[in-house]
Design a protein that fits this description.
The chain is mostly beta strands. It has no helices and 11 strands. The strands form 2 sheets. Strands 2, 4, 5, 6, 9, 10 and 11 form a 7-stranded mixed β-sheet that branches. A 4-stranded antiparallel β-sheet has the order 1-3-8-7, with no helix packed on it. The chain starts with a strand and ends with a strand.
Length: about 110
């Protein structure tokens, strides 16, 4: 089992920045990749960014390319640096870990005011 704990969400004005953190615990040796997803009210959960733990290879949704950066500290912590935030980035952000199973955190609210 893997447990994920997100932190770093909050309220920020448009154009501002936030950094989300996700700490993994438990069977972290089984994690191959981690990622951030988000879900806005009335919308489906969408992938924001992913990172391969061993290689550091990353992927980003088109909507966040050039503004968000995902990084990791081994398989223990993954970060999402979010710059130039827009009101449409408002959502609950979820950390995920992929290995033998898929694990999800509880989510952290990010609200961007215009």
């Amino acid at each position: 089992q893997v447990q994920l704990m997100e932190s770093g969400g909050g309220l920020v004005q448009a154009g501002g920045s936030l950094r989300l953190s996700c700490a993994a615990s438990g069977s972290i040796f089984s994690i191959n990749a981690m990622g951030w997803y988000r879900q806005a009210p009335g919308k489906q959960r969408e992938r924001v960014a992913t990172i391969i733990i061993t290689s550091g290879s990353t992927t980003y949704a088109d909507s966040v390319k050039g503004r968000f950066t995902i990084s990791r500290d081994g398989a223990k912590t993954v970060y999402l640096r979010m710059n130039s935030l827009k009101p449409e980035d408002t959502a609950v952000y979820y950390c995920s870990a992929f290995g033998l199973n898929t694990y999800w955190g509880q989510g952290t609210q990010v609200t961007v005011s215009s």
